[in-house]
């Protein structure tokens, strides 16, 4: 795929990106739920 560029570093970067994505997704979902409740 990307060749073997320091596998650990790449894995760490992918993991942190994934965590941010999941947190953002969860935040969006909870905001959407609150918006529905407020209506």
From TrEMBL:
This is Uncharacterized protein. It comes from hydrothermal vent metagenome.
């Amino acid at each position: 795929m990307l060749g073997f560029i320091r596998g650990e570093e790449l894995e760490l970067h992918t993991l942190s990106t994934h965590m941010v994505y999941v947190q953002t997704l969860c935040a969006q979902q909870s905001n959407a739920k609150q918006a529905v409740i407020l209506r």
